[in-house]
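My current task is to audit a protein record that another person submitted. Thanks in advance; the entry in question is below:
***
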Amino acid sequence: MEQALIYVVPALGLVGLIAMAIKSAWVTKQETGDKNMMELAGYIADGAMAFLKAEWKVLSYFAVIAVILLVWSGMSVETSSPVIAISFIIGAVFSAFAGYIGMNIATKANVRTTQAARTSLKHALNVSFTGGSVMGLGVAGLAVLGLGSLFILFYSMYVQSVGAGVNGVEMEKALEVLAGFSLGAESIALFARVGGGIYTKAADVGADLVGKVEAGIPEDDVRNPATIADNVGDNVGDVAGMGADLFGSYVATILATMVLGREIVSVDNFGGIAPILLPMVLAGLGIVFSILGMFFVTIKDDKGDVQHALNMGNWSSIVFTGVASFFVVKYMLPETLSIRGYDFTSMDVFYAIILGLVVGTLMSIITEYYTAMGKRPVKSIIQQSATGHATNIIAGLAVGMESTVLPILVLAGGIMGSYAFAGLYGVAIAAAGMMATTAMQLAIDAFGPIADNAGGIAEMSQLPEEVRERTDILDAVGNTTAASGKGFAIASAALTSLALFAAFVGVAGIDAIDIFKAPVLAALFVGGMIPFIFSSLAIAAVGRAAMDMVNEVRRQFREIPGIMEYKAKPEYDKCVEISTKASLREMLLPGGIALITPIIVGFGFQGVFEQVSSAEMLGGLLAGVTVSGVLMGMFQSNAGGAWDNAKKSFEKGVEIDGEMYYKKSEPHKASVTGDTVGDPFKDTSGPSMNILIKLMSIVALIIAPHISQSPHANSMSGEAEIKKEITYVDGKKVVTETVTEIKTLD
């Protein structure tokens, strides 16, 4: 029974990858349009792949350094192994490959969506969403396949091979090595998200400021030298970056639940590992239900509601997962369980999963309200655009700040409720439940940039107006779904970080984080500051790169005669090169802060304060960065999304004080400024917050054995007499024994 269930997990991952291959083949078979459309799509695809190859080259140097450090780490403590470095490499490769899958299909689906929009909105939605679903299924399939397979391997190597119990240090070692997979995934995700975000927004800002504002030409006009770089940016930032981002989130959530599940003594039919297996099984089933939900994403004709179709797919997959989780929990878990003295039942675990699904749904709904066209928040920005650029900025900032209130209250309620149900395991399994339908969430996310690219190709190819109208409908919905996806991601990151935090506290051997201790409070403040300096670096990087882009576009308009008359072709490659170099240069410092800060605090303050351990200070740092990062992520993503849709509202016309305003009007120009400010908010620094807080927690978990207060995890010399209680499962009984060991510590 135990063996069968373990192997079901990677098998479900393979199901996702098979479905991905089928959908990818279908997209590839669709019509590509005329020669001009194919040429433009080729420029975009070539630029995207050039960036990805350059990024991988830079990240390979980082990976070599990380592997050396992880080998040292694995050799230094009992509860780890040099194999953690191999786990890290696999996680990094899978994360990068997940991004590649999404970008490869997106650069094929974009021109095919444009061609489909020449026939109907329904066909265009079908092509763009199927392209997005390839991304979603690829990410989820790789994550479940990778985690499931590595868990089978490490469980066999470190636990079964020595006949050890599920709740001992052997399983702790297996999960510590497995944490390397998550570290690799999150590390690549951070650099991909930050680098991709800098790339896309540098190109977008440059194209907007010179093209739309100064030259007065449309956003994706073929005469604009930066327009190809802008469309490339949609792929490297919103597709490859988002894919790596949610791959990392998915893996970290499952891992955190598994680490806490190890602490539960479970009398079950699976050798006591049911609480560890449960999050992986939920993730695998979530892939199946996401595939079913994808069939609901369709409309009847050009008057169909695209947003409603996407919501139907999303909600149906959530409902399927919720119903199935009842039977899975009752089948796998015993009636009663306990973690760190907190008793709960299997039904309590089910309630926590449902609560996680509800929280994820509410977060998406609230985010949609604050960023969608036609809603009060976006309307308020439109109204204040009438009095100029400054009032547009003020309105957008106010909307972003207000948008944190309801999500935080929902999140706080979710944390308290899931903890009341099943303790810390309840919080972790709620996050796992929320992330179970990641394949569907990411399909909806990736659909947006595909539609955006399709509109760009339609504009550059000068296709009939009705084609651009159809792609604009998809693009506007894509902006809202992208914002909702970011709200969903930051909510899951908050729950996951709390679970990782709890796991860190257990491994580090500390009982509590006491903020009355001055060093801990100081670390808390430093943690709260990190999202601000991280955001500053990311936004400033966009600003610097955008200045280079603006100067290049102005130079081409000035020095290449005939561009504005369509008699000369702009030098698109120069703009692509500027964005590529800037993003690779600027992504290193923000990424370094996330990786190095926990190490500095953890190792740099060992033994410095007599009454306070460095582990407790590191706990304070994590608490500060989590709270601050969640708020910053919500504020920036929602403000940027609202600014963007306020600008797009002018394309159909808006009424301000009884007068209609359209594109190129003064209020529209103010909205363009707001959107330009919001671009790095919503696509660079904002969505990077969820990776930042999880990555720092994972780094802390990796180094926890080195700074632990527990004797078995420290590297010391001499001998120690250790008395400890061991609880294990013997058949159907729970047995507790006190064991005394004389241990040599070297």
Remarks:
- Residues 711-725, 738-746 have pLDDT under 50 and may be disordered.
- Residues 283 and 436 are 5 Å apart (CA to CA).
- Residues 169-214 form the longest helix (46 residues).
